[in-house]
Amino acid sequence: MATKKYVYFFGSGKAEGQGDMKDLLGGKGAGLAEMTNLGVPVPAGFTISTEACVAYFKNKRKYPPGLWEEVLRYMKRLESTMGSKFGDPSNPLLVSVRSGARASMPGMMDTVLNLGLNDRTIQGLIRKTNNERFAYDAYRRFIAMFSTVVMDLKRERFEEVLKEKKAETGS
Q: 1-83: which CATH number, 3.90.550.10, 3.40.50.300, 3.30.1490.20, 1.10.3720.10?
């Protein structure tokens, strides 16, 4: 029995989905697919379908069969398309994780930007951009977003620390 398709790629001017697939791809996923198909230069990526989410909850918060392997295949495809590798300290692939329901809902998960940055990969971002301040700011934002969105820590604490450091350094 073949496993169900849960992941849909977009990039290099082609998408596996389209704008009228909101029920399957969510609003953001359908929009990204449509923009890609129209030739709008959006960075490559993939969307995990709403069916995967439904199956996850129906299966007592366990991934449906084949989902993890499919995500790993699409990560490899994304790396190939973008010419960088997730976790590579010299040429890191950074990804954004966004939720996107069929319809906008209050309390939906915020975006987590710069997933892939860590103490090793930041050195590659510094070399790639030749901008240490930018790289560390991106890392700071990743840590704050991940902590508030995924770990449910209070955003205000991160803002307080940043304000203190700016006052301390005069920046």
A: 3.30.1490.20
